[in-house]
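Exercise 7.
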Amino acid sequence: MNKYSVSSLIACAVFAATAYGQNDNTNKSAATSAPLIGLKDAYAGKFLVGTAGDVPGGYNEAELANIKANYNVITPENCMKPQSVHPTEDTYTWNRPDAMVKWCTDNNIKIWGHNLCWHVQTGRWMFGASTNEQVSTRDASLARLKSHIEAEVGRYKGKVYGWDVVNEAIDDRPVSGDPENIRRDAWAVAVGPDFINFAFKYAHEADPNAQLYYNDYNIDQDTNYDRATPQFTGKHAASMALLKRLIKEGVPINGVGIQGHWHLNTNIKDVEKAIEDYESLGLKISISELDVTATGGNSGAFGSTRGNQPITPEALQKQAEVYAQLFDIFNRHAKSISRVTFWGINDNRSWRRGQAALVFDGQLQPKPALQAIIDVGLGKYTPQKP
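Solution. The predicted structure, written as tokens, is:
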């Protein structure tokens, strides 16, 4: 019988109480009783283990109990994004983030802010010419960015311990002549590529003690690149060029977030090489949006092969091994890893719903991956080398 099969997991009342009925397409033979220890406890003293969600509103008691049992840091999935808190220039909506900060504070859970500057989920009013003809589009857009960051970071100063300051600024396709491959999004068009510098500057001024990170996806892949080649050779190379410049120019950046939207055939060696490269720059690393798809062609693309496709026991066992290999890497690099955050608490609260990407199924029952991850943290299992 496989090491992480149903009969090998031990029942525990505090976790079993989190089970609740929902429709779910996960193979029920994989649903198990939970282990005796939470995820955060398995990695205590190494790095924080988190989840994403706009708690507490909309979450039932079982879900909130699951969060308190397993995680010691939460990233708001949507409620702190620019469009959510600052829909118009003269309007701020703080109800949901305020409620989240209070709930996390009351339950001794840290908060990681997400995010301050992004080309998506940002009101179009932030970009464009000023009504004052003497003020350029660049200056007007920077003034709005500064005002937004000062308001949000200042409001939660000392309560939110770190921020994804700039999110997903690197393009997936080559941008001619730019080794950093900055996408030509609204911020780059209105301000120029140094909008990144200004965003970090404004965030640091608003809270000098906050940890400030650059966050992006696929920056861990294609790490075997020619470092002497100036043109774009992949997002990892572009991220290294960007981060080196920011550090050289004195930008107050503390770390980089590897989103970690992975699948069963992800190149594990690339993940570790990326972590080593970022370590060489003196930066901390977070795995900021972790999930591992168990179905859907393993593309990981939003909207790919969703629905009522059953997840095979074989895919769930492979998923457990992939998660174990990943956490083995994080464990060995724990001095540089600040946190590992799952992007959601279960498969029904996942942007990859239908691909069984998280460690709890839609009924909050643990999958084999949960025990695999805990065993790595406790030193009870050594993943097979990739």
